[in-house]
Amino acid sequence: MKLKSMFLHGFKSFARPTRLNFADGITVIVGPNGGGKSNIVDAVRWVFGEQSMKQLRADEKSDVIFAGSASQPAAQSAYVELVFENENETISVARQLTADGKNTYFLNGQPARLKDIREKFEGTGIGVEFYSIVGQGQIERIISSSPEELRVLLEEAADIHVYKERKKEALENLERVQNNLLRVSDVINELDRQRKSLYLKAKRAERYKEYSQKLAENKRIYYGNILKRETRRLNYLNEELSKTFEKIKQLQKDLVEVETNWSTLKAEFASVDKEIENFTNLLEDYKRRQTTLSELREMYNKRLSEREGKYVETTTKLDSIQERIAQIEKRISELSLILKGLIEEISQKEAELSQIEKQRDEILSKYTEKEKQFLGIREKLEALHKERISLEGELSRIEESVEDLSKRISIIDSQLDVKVSRLSRLQTELSLLLEKLKNAGDKEAQLVKELQTIRERIDELTSEKRAAEDELENVRRTLRLLDEEEARIKQRIESYEGYTKAVRAIFAKKAEGYFENVHDVVANLISFPSEYAKAVEVLLGGAVQNVVVEASNTAKEVIEWLNREKIGRVTFLPLDLIESHFSGLRDVESHKGFVGYAAQIVRVPEKYAVLPGFLFGNDIIVRTLEDAIDIKKKYKVRCRIVTLNGELIGQHGSITGGEVETERSDTLVRRKLRLAEISEQRVQLLSHEKQLQQKLSKIQEEVQALYGQEKIAERELTNVIAEGSSTKRMVEELSKTAQEMDQEISSLQQLKKNYHLRIEGMRARKDTILSRLDEISKEKENLELLMKEYDEKLAAERKTMEEILSKHSEVKTRLASLMETKLHYESELDKLKKDKEKLSEESLVLNNQARELEKEINKLKELLLENQRELEALRKESESLFEAMRLQRADKDQKLATLAQLEEKMQKMKEERERLRDQQHQLELTIQEVKSKIEQCFTQVDPQEVENVEEIDNETLELVKKEMEDLETKLKYLGPVDLTSIQEYEDVEKKYNELVIQKKDLEDAKAKILELIEKTDEEARNKFLDVYERVNANFNKFISILFPGAEGEIRLQSGKDLLETGIELSVRKPGRKVQKLQLLSGGEKALVSIALIFALLEIKPSPFYLLDEVDAPLDDFSAERLKNLLEISSSKTQFIVITHNKVIMEAAKMLHGVTMVDGVSCVVPVELETVVN
User: Fold this and answer.
1) Is 848 one of the annotated binding-site residues?
2) pLDDT tens per residue, range 29-50
3) Annotation-wise, does 1082 bind a ligand?
4) Is 498 labeled as ligand-binding?
5) Residues 1051-1071: tens digit of each pLDDT
6) For the domain 1-132+1102-1172, what is the CATH superfamily, name and number?
7) Span 498-669: which CATH code?
8) 1131 marked as part of a ligand binding site
9) Is 32 annotated as a binding residue?
10) 37 is in an annotated binding site
């Protein structure tokens, strides 16, 4: 992939549309400071979605839009487009930001997401900040980057992102599986809970169904038997009812006859009866009134009894309340007296407690003050004791130190004598070694120069060899591509790929042994020079797929087969029918644009000589469309005219032309042409390959010879260096020893002087300590006496304090008890008062009720007395009436006896009639009851179901009834039953079992994903380790080139997983230890960063590298090395370098000058190769 060009419009200082083209190798951008060069770097970052405003050197998003200048108005949008070429594919990436904030990315001209763009360029190194784009001041960031940030570069080179994406996808799948597993487990737990709950419901429902079925069967048996029995009983009762109805009918007839006789007799005594009737009516009225009064009396007595009972109850309750109120008042009086006593006692105890606390505080204050004084004395005594111990220890140490220092002084005197003698001998030996070291240095410089010359030649040859190897690899790659293309074209020709289905079917049949006289398609039979390809292809058009056959019979045979198989249509050219139409146009041949006749240019085997004339006739090939138009107008030819570029003028003057974006090289006509071209290219490439192999062989021989010379020179240099190093080390060691010896002598002399001063100081300190010890002994005696006196006083006051505290505790406890008792009595008193108020209210209500009841009782008694007087008066009047009736009936006893007999007979007949009617009524009631039972049976069972029920005896029927009642009881005890729970339980059980299986599948999937993650990590580790080792070797190689004789190493941080560990860079210069990179100079840091970038380039080049003044810290010598590296690496990748260094400019294939004119950046491109040519 190569960066071909960049287009900017309205981006930062590039206000006008500006396009920069980039060479395949090195493109250099130069210009004065502030000209806008770095804006090109910002543009690349911006296109690939850089979000950091700091990296883009802007404060806000809108700062990337040209803000305007004195001569140029502000832009409405910023637009940047990068065009890449990847093999045969052109990729364009663009980004546009409008003034209203609308941000759009484009991929190949179509709006796209930033994610799509990053995926498109994933793994190429583009967009990795420290890898492909290195801006101003950022070259040192590689060195100062954290180990984790440096690791990203290796991962990019190793394509670890593939494994990371795979692992990320696996982890996402694992998370989904884990979540699904959790959800399934939750669902299983929930279903298990439902299953257990539904199990009980389902079992209850099953029992309900079982009991219901048994109950239905028992009902069928029981009610079936009852139905049959009650049906028979109903029939019997209906017969009895009919008989009773007939008896009533006959009795009614006899009764009518007796009543007629009675009516005749009674008419005779009508007047007497009338009078008696009057007496009787009056007597009846008396009786009714008497009955009414009796009922009233009974009601009054009942009401009186109720009122009196309620009165007694109310008065009894009232007396009880009054007694309870009296008891409460008595208890209130007692509690008041008790509380009064408690309050007095509490006041006394509080006063006593206050007095005791006052005494306690006074004594405590005095005790605390004395205790503080006592503690102060004790602290002073302890301090004196400690000081005495310290001084005694110091005195002992002083005596030991004085003795020790005296011994040391004597030792120092003996050492000084020895060291002064040793120093003199060292100085003599050192002068001899310095002379020897000078001679070794001169010889080493001579050998180094010789070795440098050899290595430079080896480097030159190595560069030539690498370039030749790369060229050889390109040749071989091209040969492989040509072989593949040749095989592909031949396969297409053999399989007739691109031809119609019918043509392919014909030649497939021919391959099976049919259609022997079918030759081939036109495209495979003709040939022509490549420059006429487009013209011939346009003239032939669809005729390229025409099939040439031996004769018309063959064409007929094939067409009949095509008709049968219904495959399609084909045009055939039978050699026995077609004719050539070529005659030539002599006038046209003299035209300057005339190239030739298509029929003569196209070549065919001799057997098909007629074919060109048939296909093309007099069709002319000319150079340009202007020539074609001129010939058509001038000569009025009736043939087709085609240009070398493919424009066509038809026989009647129509013109066809135009161009497609990409021209295919494998059309049906050009395939054979392409095969010839491939053959020619192969011959040239094989010859070039042989030359390159010979060149490489010569280079290898010369390199081997130089390596031999290098080894000899290195061996001699090593010996000289070793000898010089040994001498130098001896000089350094002797110099160091002499210097150390001199310092030791000075130190010993100074130490001896210090020891004398310390002894004097210690003796003076000893006298001071002895004086202070005497003072301490006297102070200690005085303090001990004073402390003893204070101790006795404190003991007495402590005893008094304990007595007061004990008394204080007792009084406080008693006071708390009294307060608790007081609260208890106050609570009881409040409760009694509330009870008294409640009872008083209840007593008042009961008094009112008693008075009301007393009034009602008196009123009822008056009503009873009046009722008694009225009853007595009615009794007397009734006796008078009975006497009068007895006198009236005395003369008519005989007739009355007869009438009485008739009445008695009538009465008996009526009674019989009533008995029969009662019997009829009873029968009707019984029939109704039986019918009700039958209807009840019908409600319990279906009549059709009980038709065939076997009849059973009473005992068995009772057992069935009992069992039926027992089943009903069981159903009742089962309570509400959900019959759907059985199906629900089955569904839940089924779902539960399915989920258990699903859980097992998920657990298996989880195990497989974990295994995949482990395998992916292992592959990633191996890939990363492989790339690490290669990059490490390359890094060491480039460090040794940029720092001759130095070594570079990329280390993995220890103690971490290989997939997470960071990397560290280290450099060791010749003759030095490993040096911290932070201590390197700016130029050295830049070279180390460049070495790392080129080491990565060796593994996986980025399509392009954008370096913004990375050579700024380098001197000309280092810049020359960088230039050589750029030139060597430019064959593998593309470099865009912004620089001010003339050395770097010399490596450029294309140079762009960027400058600022009136606030707008302008670009002046220069192709150096063109200028040189």
Assistant:
1) no
2) 998 888 888 888 888 888 888 8
3) no
4) no
5) 887 666 777 778 888 888 776
6) P-loop containing nucleotide triphosphate hydrolases (3.40.50.300)
7) 3.30.70.1620
8) no
9) yes
10) yes
